[in-house]
């Protein structure tokens, strides 16, 4: 079974568990922190997958490092480390967050712009794109990207809305190249 399919199954199980216990929001918050931890620490996965580190040492490490997390999250980490699948944690988190957002009628988006967006600009974008996608809300993360030159580029899932000057220049270039 592929890692994506396995990650999806773990995410669905956690979603059901969180739904039954009423801890969905807490799990989602903890998973955001956990994903950041896994993304920023390149040695974490290799350490937890290393054959010379036995399961007892992995369990103790997970208990010490993630002691502030809920038992469900810690148990997931124990289970994945024991089954040598710790590298799918970010994928499990992504699937879980997607399930939570779908249940709430939400979507997460990333906006790339030349400067940090003001709160008013974020709110306008959230309202506009929430209507366009038929969602109740959109949570925007702003990323400063100097290559945008001007305007914005917005990514929601696999869809990109490119209203940047860089994007317009590339479209003009493609038009000129295909005309020749």
From TrEMBL:
Subcellular locations according to the entry: Cell membrane; Membrane
InterPro entries documented for this protein: ATP_synth_OSCP/delta_N_sf, ATPase_OSCP/d_CS, ATPase_OSCP/dsu
Keyword Transport attached: yes
Record Pfam families: OSCP
Record carries keyword Lyase: no
Broad class of where this protein is predominantly found: membrane
UniProt cross-references to PROSITE patterns, sorted A to Z: ATPASE_DELTA
Recorded superkingdom: Bacteria
UniProt keyword list: ATP synthesis, Cell membrane, CF(1), Hydrogen ion transport, Ion transport, Membrane, Transport
PANTHER family: ATP SYNTHASE DELTA CHAIN (PTHR11910)
UniProt record similarity statement: Belongs to the ATPase delta chain family.
This protein's name: ATP synthase subunit delta
Lineage: Bacteria, Bacillati, Bacillota, Bacilli, Bacillales
Chain's gene name: atpH
């Amino acid at each position: 079974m592929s890692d994506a399919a396995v990650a999806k199954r773990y995410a669905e199980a956690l979603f059901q568990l969180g739904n039954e216990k009423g801890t969905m929001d807490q799990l989602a918050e903890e998973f955001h922190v956990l994903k950041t931890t896994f993304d920023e620490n390149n040695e974490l996965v290799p350490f937890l997958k290393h054959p010379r580190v036995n399961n007892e040492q992995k369990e103790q490490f997970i208990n010490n490092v993630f002691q502030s997390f809920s038992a469900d999250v810690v148990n997931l980490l124990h289970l994945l480390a024991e089954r040598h699948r710790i590298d799918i944690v970010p994928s499990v988190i992504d699937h879980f967050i997607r399930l939570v957002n779908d249940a709430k009628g939400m979507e997460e988006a990333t906006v790339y712009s030349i400067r940090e967006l003001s709160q008013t600009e974020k709110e306008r974008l959230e309202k506009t794109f929430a209507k366009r996608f038929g969602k109740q809300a959109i949570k925007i993360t702003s990323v400063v990207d100097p290559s945008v030159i001007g305007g914005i580029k917005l990514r929601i899932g696999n869809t990109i809305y490119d209203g940047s000057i860089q994007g317009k220049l590339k479209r003009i270039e493609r038009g000129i190249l295909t005309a020749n």
